[in-house]
TrEMBL record:
Gene transcribed to yield this protein: LOC117645635
Family the entry assigns: Belongs to the peptidase C14A family.
Gene3D superfamilies: 3.40.50.1460
Name of the protein in question: Caspase-1-like isoform X1
GO molecular function: cysteine-type endopeptidase activity
Domain Caspase family p10: 218-306
Organism (species): Thrips palmi
Keyword list, A-Z: Hydrolase, Protease, Thiol protease, Zymogen
Domain of life: Eukaryota
Keyword set includes Transcription regulation: no
Pfam families: Peptidase_C14 (PF00656)
PROSITE patterns per the UniProt record, alphabetical: CASPASE_CYS, CASPASE_HIS, CASPASE_P10, CASPASE_P20
GO biological process, alphabetically ordered: apoptotic process; positive regulation of neuron apoptotic process; proteolysis
Lineage of the species this protein comes from: Eukaryota, Metazoa, Ecdysozoa, Arthropoda, Hexapoda
GO annotations of cellular component type: cytoplasm
Amino acid sequence: MPKSGPIALSRGGAVQWQHWRKEQQVQCVQKMGFPKVLLRALQNDVCFSVRDSHKYKMNNGHRGKALIFVHTDYEPALQLKRRRGSKTDVGRLQRCFSNLGFKVKTYNNLNINVLKHVLHETSQEDHSNRDCLAVTVLTHGEEGRLYAQNGSYPQELLWSPFTADRCPTLVGKPKLFFIQACRGPFMDSGVQMPVEKSKVFREANDNVDLGDEPSLFEVETDFLVAFATVYGYVSWKREGKISWFIEILCEELSEERSDHLLTILTDVQRRVADFSTTNPDDEELRDKKQIPCVTHRLKKLLYFNDSNYNNSN
């Protein structure tokens, strides 16, 4: 290890540090007694980089895993309608993630225990040579909860296995979650909606306080969750089959563009917000709106179209 190692860290010698070999950096971190999680992150090439420090490293050789959880049928006791059109949504997602370089795995109608098992097993894999993780869920939902085949579970169940202490090989790497589900009973009729009718929907469930949406993350970083709709409201499908959110998300992600992910998702929000429902048989279901909701703790910009990325492995 170079003699100036600790001095380089403590006195701002970041440029010198960057040009050391990885073995020299690891020896320095070990000698200085940094936490093991930090050491593991360094070994994965996600820490102590000055050059392009505003961008996530997206050329590890493998894009990563993309898990798709599809729920169409539920136990009768739950009294949930069968979700139609999921086959089209899933096909779009599979093609989209595959074209981005992800290794895609699709799971259908899992119960809660099996869902938890899949997430846990994925968190225990070695993601050292992967850029990121993507998880998509298509199901019914309500305030803060999603439905598996045999019951509901808190939405945090999806990302809690991938925190730094539980999944160290994803430390410093983006973990992306896309959720196509309703988040409550209310319907958005836009600015044209009379006050009286708005009051009807809110009074239908006066136990819901839209101002009390639970915080998604407290101390975790490098997470992004994109919901199809805002807290408390329903999400819609085109002609009852194709989800607005999934359709536009896949279109935007599939375009050859140099924008970072947050810009892409802003375009998704704008395009979905332009849609309105058309239901000739039920006036109450006409001209309803939807706006996706993106919550994130990303520290850097995420570019999928990195010119240095090699998908040959």
